[in-house]
Amino acid sequence: MNMETKKTYVMFTVGWEVRYNMRDEALSCLDYFVDNDPMWHGKTFMGKEIRAPEVLRAEKVNQTVVFIGSLAHRAVISNQLAGMGFKEGHNLFWAPNWHGDEVVPPFYYDKNHWTELYKKNKDLIDQGYFQERTQIISKMLPWETFHSVLDLAAGAMLIKKYLPLSESCKYIPIDFIPYSKETIVCNLDAYEYPSIEGSSIDCAILSGTLELVRDWKWLLQKTSKITHRMIISIVTADIFNQGYPTMRTRFEHGFLTNIYPHELILYMQKLGYQLTAAKERHQLDNIYLFERVQGGDDDFFGRNAI
Predict the structure, then answer these.
(1) CA 217 to CA 31: how far, in whole Å?
(2) Which of 81, 125, 162, 207 could crosslink 86 through cysteines, CB 3.0-4.6 Å?
(3) Per the confidence metrics, is the pTM higher than 0.90?
(4) Which residues on adjacent β-strands are paired with residue 280?
């Protein structure tokens, strides 16, 4: 009797692009995940174990299919897997190019998936989570007088939709996925930053951003070089732990950092900023306005401060 050998399906990386931009129905068909970062080993995602890549050496390469989920590190991971006997187009595939088979459907939505993926967060959108947050931000500064606004991790650009920006204001959306033609593509968690240093940005907005960048101090330091104002909306560790006691770990819900309010405030002070306004949304997030201390380094950009 000829019996078809069952294949093993594995996703390489559990990064943000996998957890938030890929279809749950496809990810659930996988056997397990692997990741180079040892901090994830032994944890689970969607009930599937996250292992070290070395476990793939014990698999039969002709019965194993590996998907590369990373957008930024495809070449590096492909070379790593080539040394284990995996070949692109045969038993190794880049997840965005996977069209599906009888076991694992496509990981991404159809050609309109850059907007369809927001259905994964539809409950939050329907409840006004993002709208309420943006409306609070809209009251913190005289946005109509600004000439430039930087939106780090812009997503669907709700900031642009709800803020009272003038027509002459330059809105700069940054994200690692091209949600629109305007989006400047950068993977902040991979130390990619937009080439706008030397520019003077009236305000940088980091709304739900620091939770997704492991080296969050690097991100704030880079941003401090181009603006005297930052608005930071963040689900701090204290809010998460108090508001969601039954959730297993921050990681399993998409968070890569574990920042307490005092850590953020003290680091911003180190960068020369002071906290000038704050709003806590009960068991949701904190929204902070930081502005550079007057009388500080006026020549930070090689000219007078804003």
Answers:
(1) 35
(2) 81
(3) no
(4) 286
292 CB neighbour count, 10 Å cutoff? 21
Angle (CA) 271-275-281 rounded to 5° is 125
- What's 14's domain CATH number? 3.40.50.720
* DSSP classification of residue 62: G
pLDDT tens digits along 107-150: 875 544 444 444 555 444 444 567 788 888 888 999 999 999 99
Q: Which domain holds residue 171?
A: 122-292
Report the alpha-carbon distance of residue 88 to residue 95 in Å, rounded.
Answer: 11
Q: Which two tokens stand for residue 35?
A: 């990741």
179 neighbors 155 (Cβ within 8 angstroms): yes
How far apart are alpha carbons 306 and 303 in whole angstroms? 9
d(CA 147, CA 155): 21
Name the one residue in this structure whose structure tokens are 């108090």. 242
